[in-house]
Amino acid sequence: MKAEIIAVGSELLTPFRTDTNSLYLTAELNQVGIEVVHKAIVGDGPDEMRSSFQHALDRAEVVLSCGGLGPTDDDRTRGTVAQLLGRKLIRDEATYRKIQERFRRFNRAMPEINARQALVIEGADVLPNPRGTAPGQWIEARGRILILLPGVPNEMRGLMELEVKPRLARLGVKQRLYSRDLRIVGLFESEVDQRVMPLYAEYSDTETTILATAGGIQLHPRIWSADPAYAQARLDELVRRISLVLGENLISMNGEMIEEIVARLLTENRATIAVAESCTGGLLAEKLTSISGSSAYFLGGVVCYSNELKTNLVGVPPELIAAKGAVSSEVALALAEGIRKRTGATIGVGVTGIAGPTGGTPEKPVGLVHIGIANEHGAREKSFRFPGDRERIRFFASQNALDAVRRHFLFPQRNQ
Amino acid sequence: MKAEIIAVGSELLTPFRTDTNSLYLTAELNQVGIEVVHKAIVGDGPDEMRSSFQHALDRAEVVLSCGGLGPTDDDRTRGTVAQLLGRKLIRDEATYRKIQERFRRFNRAMPEINARQALVIEGADVLPNPRGTAPGQWIEARGRILILLPGVPNEMRGLMELEVKPRLARLGVKQRLYSRDLRIVGLFESEVDQRVMPLYAEYSDTETTILATAGGIQLHPRIWSADPAYAQARLDELVRRISLVLGENLISMNGEMIEEIVARLLTENRATIAVAESCTGGLLAEKLTSISGSSAYFLGGVVCYSNELKTNLVGVPPELIAAKGAVSSEVALALAEGIRKRTGATIGVGVTGIAGPTGGTPEKPVGLVHIGIANEHGAREKSFRFPGDRERIRFFASQNALDAVRRHFLFPQRNQ
C-alpha cells in the first residue's frame, strides 16, 4: 500500500525550516505496512495546495497531510480538500463546543474566526484532538484514504497514536517493513559505504540507508515482506555479512549509541571514570554525562586548555610539557593517569590535540589527536589524525575516546 | 518568479533521512529574487518521478532537481526528464572523456554503466561539475527553466555557485527577498511567539519565521520587494518593534550566536574565563571552546559531579556543601569564585543544578539550576527553574550561563 505525505506551511518553504513531521509519520506508516512513495511541501497558496492534493490522490492510496488547520485565512487545508472532493464543510458540534468552552474558561467571547477550526468535511470521521483545538479528519473518497492532521508536532503525534494508527492497522496490510539499526564508530561515512556497498547488489531485495549524524554513523538495512520469518532471516544474514566487513567498528545492532554502551560497561563492571580533555573542550564529559544516571560512574572532568591547568589541576609535570609539547602521546598518558589519581576513578581518560583551524604545524598538524586511557595496571595511548573542520575534529576525538573506553572493557587483553 | 525544488532519492522517503539540500537551494534562489512555492521528494519509481516533474513544470517557472544522476539503474532523473520533454539523451564528449580519464588513472577499464553519467538531454547547457562526475544540466523548454543537479551536497553546492547562480542572476528578476536574522536567549519559543505575534498583523507585507534550534531561538523577518530602500526601512522598523517587546533577551540582529558574542566581549575586554560546572556536565566549556581562537581567553574548566571534586578541584568548603546542599546558590557562588581563584581567570562561572530525570525533591526539583559568576569585585548568583527533559535543562542552563557572562559585560552596574 502506497502513501503520500503533504506538509502544509509557508515557513517550510524558507531556507530556515524544513518538514520533519514526515520522518515520524513515515516510521509509523511503515510499521503498519504502508510505504511512503512521495512527499510534497506546500505553502498556503490555494492553487499550489489544490494541485498537490489532486496529484497525491492520483498517485497514492493513502494521502496524509499535516498543517493548515489553524483558525486564520491562511489555513486552507480544510477548504481546499472540500472543494477538491466536491463536498461541503460542516460544523462539528463537539469541536465547536470545545472551542467555546476554552474561551469561556478565560472569560472571553469567542471570535467568529475561531469557529473555523470546528469545520469538517462532509462525511469525514472526526478524530478528536486531545492536545489542541482542530480535530483530525479521516475521509474515504474515490477509493482513497485522506487523513488531515494539524502541523503542531505534539498534536500531530497524539492524533496519529490514538486515532490514525488503530484505523490503519485495521486495513490489514500484510506486507510489512522490517529493519535494523546498526551503529558504527571509528570509520568515516565513505569508508563504511565502500565496505558495505558490494553487499547491496547481493541483497537486492533489501535496501540500506547510511546516515552520518551528530551521534555517529548509522546503517539502516530494511526489507519489505509479507513473511516475517523470511524477512528476519534475510536481515540477520545481511547484518552478519555487514559485521564481517566492519569488524569491531560495528558497535551495536539495536541502535545503542556509544555513550550508552560505555555507560552500560562502566555500570556492569562497577567502574568509575574521570576525564582530562584539552582539544575536545568539554565535549567528552558532556557526552558521558548526557546519559541519565551518569553520576553513578562519572566522577568528573577537567577541561585544561592552558598548560598551567594541565599541571595545577591534573598534575602533568611541566618538564614533560616542555620536552614533548602539550600535544603529545606522553601528555595524553599523563592526563589520563593524572585525572585518575586526582579523582580516585577506576579509569582515567586524557585527550590532547589540535582542533584548528589555527595552531597546526608541519610536525603537529590540525587534526592530530592523542587519546590516553589509564587504569590501576597502567596506561595506553593511541594517536589519530582526523580530517575536517574544528567541529568534526572535536566530534571524532570524543567518539574515539569513548570507543577507547569500550575497547578497554571488551578487549582488555589486547593492546589497542 | 516562482520555483519548485524536486529532491530525488529513495533514502529521502525513509524515517531516517530527509531532504536538506533544498534549504541551501532556497536561500540561493531567494537571493536572486526567486521564490520557492513547492517542494517534492520522490524516490526512484519512474511513475512517481515523471508525475513530479510533469506537475512541477505546470506550476513553476523554474524547476530545480537534485539527485538521481548517478551511474546505476536506479538513477532515473536524466531518462525521465528526456522522455517527458520528448527529447533524446546524447553523450557529452567532454564528460565522457573525464570519466574515462578517471578510470585510466586507477588503471581500470571503465564499466559501460559509468558512461551513463555522460548522457545529457538534447539541447541542454552542460554545467561542468568541478567536484564529481555527473554534470549539471540547464534546459529551457515550454517557457520553463529546468535545472538538474546531483544530490551529493558538495557537488550540488559547487555547481550552484559556479554555474547556476550566475545564469539565474542574468534573468534580471527585480523583486528581491530581504531578511534579518535575530537571536534570542532567556525566553522560550512560546514566550517569543506570544510577544511578537501582535506585530505580524501590523506588518502584513512581511513574514517572520520563528525557529528553536540547538543554538537557541531565532526570528527571521523577511519581505519581498522590488524597492530595496523600502524593504530595508520596513525591516528596520519591524526589528525595532521586535526589540522593544523582547528587550535584553534579543542578543543580536545579524545572526551572531551567544557563544560568539561572549567570545567577542571577552576579547574586547581582554578578559579570561574559567568554568566549574556540575549539571551541565561539560556543555558550558564545550560551547565556550567551540569558537576558534578560544584558547586566547578560555583557561579551562572543571566538571565536578561529585562533592569530593567540588572540594578537591575547585575548593568548595565541604561544610558549605553539607549545610546548603550541592545544588544551592551558595555552592554556585563558591564554584564561580573557586575556579576563578584556582585558574587566575578574570571571570569564573559556576553552575550547579538538577538535570534529571531523577534526583529531584520537592524543595529542589528537577530543572532547578543555580548560576554564579565571579570577578575581582565579588560574585553574583541567579536561580532558574527550567522545564523539559535532561537535554533541554542542560541546554537552557548553558545558554543562561553564557548570557550571564554577556550581561556581566553589557550591564556591569546592575545586579543581574
Topology:
Two copies of one chain form a homodimer.
Chain A: E1 2-8, H1 21-31, E2 35-42, H2 46-59, E3 62-66, H3 77-85, E4 89-91, H4 93-105, E5 119-121, E6 125-127, E7 136-141, E8 144-149, H5 153-169, E9 176-179, E10 182-184, H6 189-202, E11 206-213, E12 216-225, H7 228-246, E13 250-252, H8 258-268, E14 273-277, H9 283-289, E15 298-304, H10 307-312, H11 318-324, H12 329-343, E16 347-353, E17 368-375, E18 378-385, H13 390-410
Parallel strand pairs in A: 1-2, 1-3, 3-8, 14-15, 14-16
Antiparallel strand pairs in A: 4-5, 6-7, 7-8, 9-12, 10-12, 10-13, 11-12, 16-17, 17-18
What would you say about this model in short?
Chain A has 416 residues and is an alpha/beta fold.
Provide an overview of this structure.
The structure is a homodimer of 416-residue chains. The first copy, chain A, is α/β, with parallel strands linked by helices. Chain A folds into 3 domains: 2-169, MoaB/Mog-like domain (Molybdenum Cofactor Biosythetic Enzyme, Chain A); 178-252, Alpha-Beta Plaits (2-Layer Sandwich); 258-410, CinA-like (Maf protein). Chain A has 13 helices and 18 strands. In chain A, the strands form 4 sheets. In chain A, strands 2-1-3-8-7-6 form a 6-stranded mixed β-sheet, sandwiched between helices. In chain A, a hairpin with an 8-residue loop joins strand 6 (125-127) and strand 7. In chain A, helix 2 (46-59) crosses helix 3 and helix 9 packs across helix 13 (390-410). The radius of gyration of chain A is 28 Å and the shape is elongated. The first copy, chain A, starts with a strand and ends in a 6-residue tail after the last helix. In chain A, 50% of the residues are buried. The mean pLDDT of chain A is 93. Chains A and B meet through helix 1, strand 2, helix 2, strand 11 and strand 12 of A and helix 1, strand 2, helix 2, strand 11 and strand 12 of B.
